[in-house]
Every structure is written in C-alpha cells, then in structure tokens.
C-alpha cells in the first residue's frame, strides 16, 4: 500500500526538499502541499492522508494548532501527524505531543529517519528523535508532570508494565516482539489493552503516561 502524505512548511525550498525525499520512496506519495497551517488543515480534511508532515512555525495557524485541530483529544477521527522543525526547544516538543503528534523530528535528522517516522506514523507507531527522547526523560526525572497523571481504569499486568516501558523507549512492535519472544499479534493486543486502561489514543500518549508516572525513569535506574 502507498502511504499518502500531506506536507506543510512555509519555506518553499524546505517543502520541496521534503516532498522530493518522500516521493523518492517506492511506497510513499505526497498528495498535497501547504504553505501555512490553515491551508494544511483544509487540505488534510479534504484528502484524509495517511500521514501529515507539519513544520511547527508557520504564519497564521502554526503546526501545533494544526496538529491539535486534526489530531487533538477532541478529534473523533484523528489523523497521524509528524511534526518537523529546525527548532530544538522543549516547549515545542511538549506542545506538539500534547496536541496529538505521533512523531517529532528535527530537520537535520536525515532522510532515513524522516522516512522511518512517516512509516511509523502510518502504522500507528511513534518516532521521536533520539536526542529529544533522552531530554524528555531527563525533564520528567527532574521536574515531574505539571499535573497528577490519570489513573488506569484497571491495574496493569506485569507484561503490560514491561511493554509500557518498551513503548516509551521508542521500540517498534517488531522490536518488542523480539525482546519478549511474543508474537506481533500479542504485542498489538497488549498495546490495545494499555490504550484502553490509560484512556490513551496512540503510542505517544502511552509513552507520555509512562514518563509522568516515572515508569521509564525507574526502569532505567534498575538496569
């Protein structure tokens, strides 16, 4: 299947470069381009792409607001959004993930990671630049969440706790399957159960909950 992508960036040269990289892949097609957030929202709502690739800083409606409109908590049928930016700022990272983004990349991450992030988002996975993931962990370790994390509707099983940490560490379903010697189907079942128990809609929200409840910090501390 071909992954259909909408790209939004106010800089034409950047937009063209992203489009060329993605269109060079045999299973990815850029079906629309936008120069600002308002255009991006309209285009995405009309085309319903598999993945939206949004720059953060755009005139009018920025990438974070566009992400919230298309993938935020209030959206019944959210689209997969990957946010990409030249600005490596914590405020942007938090805002993008809270707005519903399934990935966060820097523009200098390289074409391989860009393509990987699009593939991950299309599959319902999440990819965040490794340097940003490490800093998120450090931030939560020192400051903790801004408000008390939600409590699961049912107690997590030991296996769910293990997979929770693996998801928060950025592992894919295939990697989790190999690590715990379980089938992909079983991995998906556990992740679906985690989403239900935590009220999460995607892997990023699962990961954020793991950070907020110190699951990741504690797991790394005991390794």
UniProtKB/TrEMBL annotation:
Residues 4-122 form the Response regulatory domain. Pfam families: GerE, Response_reg. Residues 149-214 form the HTH luxR-type domain. The keyword Nucleotide-binding does not apply. The keyword Transcription regulation applies. The modification 4-aspartylphosphate is found at residue 55. Keywords: DNA-binding, Phosphoprotein, Transcription, Transcription regulation. GO terms for molecular function: DNA binding. This is DNA-binding NarL/FixJ family response regulator. It comes from Kibdelosporangium banguiense.
């Amino acid at each position: 299947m071909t992954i259909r992508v909408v790209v939004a960036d106010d800089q034409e040269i950047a937009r063209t470069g992203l489009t060329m990289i993605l269109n060079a892949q045999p299973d990815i097609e850029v079906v629309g381009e936008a120069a600002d957030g308002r255009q991006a929202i309209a285009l995405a709502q009309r085309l319903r792409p598999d993945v939206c690739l949004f720059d953060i800083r755009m005139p009018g409606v920025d990438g974070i607001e566009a992400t919230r409109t298309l993938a935020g908590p209030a959206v019944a049928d959210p689209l997969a959004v990957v946010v990409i930016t030249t600005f490596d700022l914590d405020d942007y990272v938090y805002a993008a993930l809270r707005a519903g983004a399934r990935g966060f990349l820097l523009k200098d991450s390289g074409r391989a990671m860009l393509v990987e992030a699009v593939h991950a988002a299309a599959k319902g996975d999440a990819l965040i630049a490794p340097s940003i993931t490490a800093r998120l962990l450090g931030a939560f370790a020192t400051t903790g969440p801004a408000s008390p994390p939600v409590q699961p509707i049912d107690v997590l099983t030991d296996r769910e706790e293990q997979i929770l940490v693996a998801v928060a560490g950025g592992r894919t379903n295939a990697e989790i399957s190999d690590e715990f010697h379980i089938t992909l189907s079983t991995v998906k079942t556990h992740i679906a159960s985690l989403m239900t128990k935590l009220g999460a809609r995607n892997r990023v929200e699962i990961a954020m909950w793991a950070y907020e409840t110190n699951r990741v910090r504690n797991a790394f501390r005991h390794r």
